[in-house]
UniProtKB/TrEMBL annotation:
Homodimer. One of its GO terms (biological process) is NAD+ biosynthetic process. It holds the Pfam family KYNU_C. It comes from the Bacteria. Belongs to the kynureninase family. It comes from Iamia majanohamensis. The keyword Hydrolase applies. Its EC number is 3.7.1.3. One of its GO terms (molecular function) is transaminase activity. Catalyzes the cleavage of L-kynurenine (L-Kyn) and L-3-hydroxykynurenine (L-3OHKyn) into anthranilic acid (AA) and 3-hydroxyanthranilic acid (3-OHAA), respectively. This is Kynureninase.
């Protein structure tokens, strides 16, 4: 297939004029004319969130004080169901509350509790560090072997055939893997990977941190078992915002091990004996982070208003344009594209591989383009359709070309 023609800046400007989501950029604080391409690390602040948190501080906590719990008590499940609709999960299967790492720890123990005969836990190769640390720690606690699932090529996603091989002897209880790989943006086939694990008697615990709010998700339809994901990236819920935890309804018998009063059937009865909630509320532990949950709520509201289909369409267009621009301008200068070429197999950031990646990111910053470096040799350019412009992506590629050609 012949290469696509190199897009010009005029092409990018035309795409921006036709972008049905362009109006949302003005709904964020502090972007002005900057090219902010780190929405896959920390999304910018929505103006509505700034207003919501100010009102909460002034009128809620400051005005109602303890009476405010009448409105805040069910936020983890109310916001959880709203996130659930965004990721293709029915009600009562998602809660929002703890950090991603804590959610991973809880759900990995929960998944393994359903496989008392398991002798191993598996994790995708080059997985995000916190996932690997959690797997190693839980495996040590349970005296389990840790197996590494090889990825599809050095930059590709976790694949069904690799999971099948890793789990072939029936010893693996849970496979931990990111749906969208944090380094390269490679996206796995959730349905195929889940089916391969299930055929070998294993569950899959998905890390959706680079997928939630970035790519369309259908957890229930794709046979997902368990999932976690942060909300401060594409959902724009702010630094330290609480993470989601998903447990499929068919796995309601899998209980996370931290027994706290928010997971208790009747928490205000103050019973001495713990009795777990029958739905995703069992995944809760202690007092929820109210301000963070309100920020998640506002971030989800923006995505609902934009619409999942429109976000996906614009996201694909942005990735296609930046891919074509990088292919034409950067490959001749020794840059490799680490993100898969297949649109169905990539998330919402383009990863460029070059030995001087750190210096390139610093040079882009001098040009007013905020991009991301991942050691040792990756430059990441995030395309978040709610606030990223096509010209932002084009300017980033052109900036890299210019610095390499100098």
């Amino acid at each position: 297939m012949p290469a696509a023609p190199a897009p010009t800046r005029a092409d990018a400007e035309a795409l921006d004029r036709a972008d049905p989501l362009a109006r949302f950029r003005d709904r964020f604080v502090g972007l002005d004319g900057s090219a902010y391409l780190m929405g896959n690390s920390l999304g910018p602040l929505p103006a509505a969130t700034e207003d919501r948190l100010a009102a909460f501080t002034r009128e809620g906590w400051g005005g109602r004080r303890v009476e405010g719990w009448e409105e805040w008590l069910d936020l983890p499940t109310r916001v959880g169901d709203r996130v659930g609709r965004l990721v293709g999960a029915g009600p009562g299967q998602v809660v929002v509350g703890d950090s991603t790492t804590v959610q991973l720890h809880k759900l990995l123990h929960a998944g393994l509790s359903g496989r008392p005969d398991a002798r191993a836990v598996a994790v995708a190769d080059d997985e995000f560090p916190t996932d690997r640390y959690v797997v190693d720690g839980v495996a040590a606690d349970r005296d389990l072997e840790v197996r590494v699932v090889p990825l599809d090529g050095c930059d590709g996603p976790v694949a069904a055939d690799a999971v099948a091989r890793t789990c072939a002897d029936g010893a693996v209880g849970v496979v931990v893997a990111s749906l969208v790989r944090y380094r390269t943006g490679a996206r796995a086939d959730m349905a195929a990977v889940s089916a391969a694990a299930h055929a070998a008697g294993a569950l899959v615990l998905w890390d959706l941190s680079h997928a939630v709010g970035a790519v369309p998700l259908a957890l229930d339809a794709d046979g997902a078992d368990l999932a976690v994901g942060c909300t401060y990236k594409y959902l724009n819920a702010g630094p330290g915002a609480p993470a989601l935890a998903y447990r499929a309804r068919r796995h309601a018998h899998l209980h996370q091990p931290i027994h706290g009063w928010f997971g208790q059937v009747d928490q205000f009865a103050m019973d001495a004996t713990y009795a777990p909630q029958p739905d995703a509320r069992q995944l809760l532990v202690g007092t929820p982070p109210v301000a963070g949950l309100l920020a998640v709520d506002e971030g989800v509201a923006l995505h609902e208003e934009a619409g999942v289909d429109a976000l996906a369409e614009v996201g694909r267009a942005q990735m296609r344009m930046v891919w074509d621009a990088a292919t034409a301008a950067l490959l001749p200068l020794g840059v490799a594209l680490a993100t898969p070429a297949d649109p169905a197999r990539r998330g919402q950031h383009l990863a460029l591989r070059h030995p001087d990646a750190r210096a390139l990111v610093d040079a882009l910053a001098d040009d007013g383009v905020v991009a991301d470096h991942r050691a040792p040799d990756i430059v990441r350019l995030a395309a978040a359709p709610l606030h990223t412009r096509f010209v932002d992506l084009w300017d980033a590629v052109e900036g890299i070309r210019r610095h390499l050609a100098a």
